[in-house]
Amino acid sequence: MKPAGMPSLTRSLALVALLLVPQMIPATAADRGVAYSGMSSNTGGRVVTLGIGKSYVVDLPSNAAEVLVADPKIANAVVRSARKAYLIGIALGETDIIFFDAQGNQIESLAVSVARDMSPIRNNLLTSIPEGMVSASAVGDSVVLTGSVKSPAEAATASAIAANLVGAPEKVVNALAIENRDQVMLKVSVVEMKRDTTKQLGINWEFSGVSGGTSVGGILDPTDFASVAGAFGIRHEWGGNFVEATLEALEEKALLRTLAEPTLSAISGERAEFLAGGEFPVPVGRDDNQISIEFKKFGVGLTFTPVVLSSGRISLQIGTEVSELSSEGAIEVNNLSIPALSVRRANTTVELPSGGSYAIAGLLQDKSRQAIRGTPGLINLPVLGSLFRSRDYQRGQTELVVIVTPYIAKPNGRDKLALPDDGFSNPSDTDTFFLGQLNNIYAPGLMRKGGYQGPIGYTVE
């Protein structure tokens, strides 16, 4: 004999099943990694966390007749029997799912949070960084990486893995701590050789006569030939007339060498800068009749950012620049001359072992200028035309070579470090006056102090 009320319960369950048919989705295998704990702040029920496309089985304490899903776009509930329901995550977000019995009483309340499934990310992190302690958690649509790794390279690998699986690097928050951040010392040699050659050869003529008050001259004022380097002149006068020939022969060679050997240290992943030179003022604007001044740097500059990789290798992003003030390209504003800069610059990214060297070469510059000046008409005469023209030749060659050597630096004791003034001592007045010395040859304190030898303690008689 059936208990009273059973037909009513059966009809209620059939009605619930009919209402849920349009929303029923084939259930996937239950995600055994989904955890639920605590109480919901809104409904006072359990908190269930699901991944998108994941399902969770809910065992109800009594027969369910009705289910309420607050936001079906985030999660869905499928009732397959009176005491068993399946929760399915659809989209990121939070919602409430409440179950009622036939009398309308609440029998179960669930606060469902649909987040990213962290299992693929965690499995990939464990495979790629087996020695790291990396934890990945979902916060809304983002992934937060916490824990510790041994090097910045491992931290970058963890971020790349998470960004690849999430689909956007900006949705990855890297809060990993690096256990041992190596320091990198970079030794740089910047050498520039500049060679200038100037050649001048020719004869300048000057003719002058008082008749008609005119003067026919060459390209050089003969009265100034004595002030011209390498010039030799002959002058012949008769009456008020003269003829003068200036032989100009000059060859000049100049050699300029620029050398800078900076040594910098920086923590792996951080940027370091170096400048040996100066700054010059440049007007950049006018405000209330006041000229604004901005200072531009010039000299030998260096910037680098090292990243220590595995196996002691170093990824090095380096930029070097050699600049000097130049009159070429200079401008004048309001009787103010603003010089230009002649710049040689190189930027590159290389990967080297600790102690390995890399050369940045090939920064060559070759400029030449040649001019022929002379008396019009006469300079084109065969053979004799060379007596009426002057040739100027200038050539400038510049070559810049940069050699970088990174080292993984370890701290040393103070006694192993040296200063440029170690052993320096000012001389006495006698040594300076009679011997011309600027420092003592034997400075005090150069000898290392010996240890105490002999018995230690009190002497009792």
From TrEMBL:
Biological processes, Gene Ontology terms: protein secretion
Keyword set, alphabetical order: Signal
GO cellular component terms, semicolon-separated: type II protein secretion system complex
Residues of the BON domain: 129-179
Name of this protein: Secretin
Record-stated family: Belongs to the bacterial secretin family.
Pfam families associated with the record: BON, Secretin, T2SS-T3SS_pil_N
Pilus formation protein N-terminal domain: residues covered: 46-114
Residue stretches making up the Type II/III secretion system secretin-like domain: 249-409
Signal sequence, start to end: 1-29
Natural source organism: Terrihabitans soli
Coiled coil residues, start to end: none
